[in-house]
Amino acid sequence: MKIFNNFDIVAKGWYIACPSSSLPKGQVKSLELCGQKIALFRGEDGKVRAIDAFCPHLGTDLGIGRVDGNLLRCYFHHWAFDGEGRCRDIPCQAEIPDKARSRGYATDEKYGFIWVYPDATAPEGVVEFDELKGKEVVALADKPWQRHCHHHICMMNGIDAQHLRTVHRINVDLKLSLHQNSSGRIIDFTLRGEFPNSTWVEKIGRRLLGSRYAYAMRYADGCIGLLTIMKDVKLLPPLHMIYAYTPLPSGKTGVQPIYVTAKREGIFGGLVARFLLLLTRWFYYVLRDEDGQIYDNICYNPQNLLPIDGNLVVYMAYVNRLEPSGWSKTTNLVI
Which residues contact 130 (CB under 8 A, 6 or more apart)? Predict the structure, then answer.
């Protein structure tokens, strides 16, 4: 079944629910995520848990309940559920029916957000940058916004080599290398090339940054994009940015930009980290504003792909090999 550009299918992957700071210890909230009503609660141990929001007893929204230790207790009849959705206590009787359970979902906290996976367990946590693995990081979240197309279409922008010249006027002849991990969930596109040396701007850039340039796009689960720019240049370390995508009603996509860098010690180190985050944001704003006109006015119809569009073909094939989740709307889907 086609997954690419299909709003009826939600692929298994990590989706942002809310900022971590919005859910203090001992609090619960319900929200809609990928068309699914979810109850999030943080137990006394500080861990975030996620289950279907409607109580399996009579359908009360568990978001108006209360946290009891590491359990979530329904407001209506005080049934208590653990993070896997199993009922652990019914005040009016000792016996708990087997069907007294809700669906539980895996959660992760990273980059200042709570993420939810549409299954009880996830194969691994939220994706990371290779250069930052094992390091403490600093993250800066920007204001979320929306695009008027499917997130699979938005995500291809980072590997569309043609538009770097036509839209952004970046005259670098980039060569592509590809790597897909064994699970099929993550695919890396790395593009490398040599800076041109014709205009005065290009000559200054070449003198400051060096003759070689590379950037990388890492896609995870078809819903998270990790962009690394300024790879292999002088003066600057690589700059990292996350695009977290969420399908929304009415054919729209929610986009949460997050800028990430390694944490540095001391006051000076903190200032360096802040500068790099703001520099990353500046690059992002330049690209976003130029691309916005395209992706808010697009009716995607890939009927005339060229050999230079090979990146896009590989990406579409990767998405169609992902695994649909139980949040998908397609009635004949077998999970």
Answer: none
Backbone φ/ψ region at 266: left (φ over 0), alpha (ψ -120 to 50), beta: left
What is the tens place of the pLDDT at every residue in 225-248?
Answer: 999 988 878 888 899 999 999 999
Answer yes or no: are the C-beta atoms of 107 and 49 closer than 8 Å: yes
Q: Are strands 87-89 and 80-81 parallel, antiparallel or unpaired?
A: antiparallel
How do residues 166-223 score in pLDDT, each as one tens digit? 666 666 666 777 888 878 899 998 888 777 677 766 677 677 777 777 889 999 999 9
